[in-house]
Amino acid sequence: MAGLLDVKELAYYISSIHKRDKQRDISPLKLQKSLYFLFAYWGAYVSKSKKSEDPLDCKKYLFDSAIEAWVYGPVIPEIYHLCKDEGKTLSQYKNDSLFKNKESVKEFIDGMLKDIFEVSDFKLVELSHLDETWKSTTQSCNMNKNKIIREYVSKI
């Protein structure tokens, strides 16, 4: 299933919003958990929508990239390696076209980020460790995206 956004551009966006709002770089841990929770809640939101007038809402995968079960919770390896290679330069990225014709997606993400940014890194890890999909996936293996979304449908 095709994703709605490019995960790298989304990671850059999250990093720049965090830098703007918190006046400091986002930690790799918070970035990973932000991406995971955005993916899970977006998928649940779309799945629970009975009838949508927005054609973008039919895409329940916020992004295509793999999500793996790691020790500190779900991780998007593509972003892990990007951060490792680029360090703290992610917040300097500017892309005004990420949400072009996707205002409802931007509103959803911005609202979620406000809440996520208020939670400590290790509290986010703790919350992700409550997820049955993470618990049932062998470490360093792909998590089933549809299972993640089904689990979050039951949470909202």
Short précis:
By secondary structure, the protein is mainly alpha-helical. It has one domain (7-87, 97-153). It is built from 7 helices and 2 strands, in the order ααββααααα.
Secondary-structure map:
Elements: H1 7-22, H2 28-48, E1 68-70, E2 73-75, H3 77-86, H4 103-117, H5 121-128, H6 132-135, H7 145-153
Antiparallel strand pairs: 1-2
Helix pairs in contact: 2-4, 2-5, 2-7
What this model shows, in words?
The longest helix is centred in the first third of the chain and has 21 residues, at 28-48. Helices cover 53% and strands 4% of the residues. By secondary structure, it is mainly alpha-helical. A hairpin with a 2-residue loop joins strand 1 (68-70) and strand 2 (73-75). The chain is globular, with a radius of gyration of 15 Å. It has a two-stranded antiparallel sheet. It has one domain (7-87, 97-153). It has helices at 7-22, 28-48, 77-86, 103-117, 121-128, 132-135, 145-153; strands at residues 68-70, 73-75.
